[in-house]
């Protein structure tokens, strides 16, 4: 009895793997189906219109103290304690830290992989070792990782007045 059941299950799996018609139909249905995306808004109400890709920000900041700009990119992480900051991927293995104007709002503490549009001010800053260690602690890093922070960091920092999380 066990051999017959195993044979039937194996036969069903093999025929399902060779059935490309259903997969094509599903793709067609998916392409013609309207997808609803929930957006979450934090801080000031903003729109995603005219946002630049985060990877273009360094070039735009060249020769400027600061820049009022709307940016769209992938969130790598948010503060696991309160959601009082997040890190956004800006390409080439670099991130920018995004804080929120006057700590007037926070984002979810479990972000990672979502797309965000942010509006506010970007600038190149130097973050002290003390602040980097504080951020690492808020980010849930281990004692060893925190102890390994020994140099200040020069990077883009961003103060957002509004955030949209897709």
Highlighted features:
single chain, about 170 residues, alpha+beta, OB fold (Dihydrolipoamide Acetyltransferase, E2P), 2 domains, about 30% helix, globular, disordered N terminus
Give an account of the 3D structure.
With 166 residues, the chain is α+β, with helices and mostly antiparallel strands. It has 2 domains: 2-32, no CATH class; 40-165, OB fold (Dihydrolipoamide Acetyltransferase, E2P). The chain has 5 helices and 7 strands; from the N terminus they run ααββαββββααβ. A 5-stranded mixed beta barrel has the order 3-4-5-7-6. A hairpin with a 6-residue loop joins strand 3 and strand 4 (85-91). The chain is globular. The model is unreliable at 1-29 (pLDDT under 50).
In short:
The protein is α+β, with helices and mostly antiparallel strands and 166 residues long. It has helices at residues 2-17, 20-32, 57-61, 129-138, 143-147, and strands spanning 40-43, 52-53, 66-78, 85-91, 94-100, 115-127, 153-165. Helix content is 30%, strand content 36%.
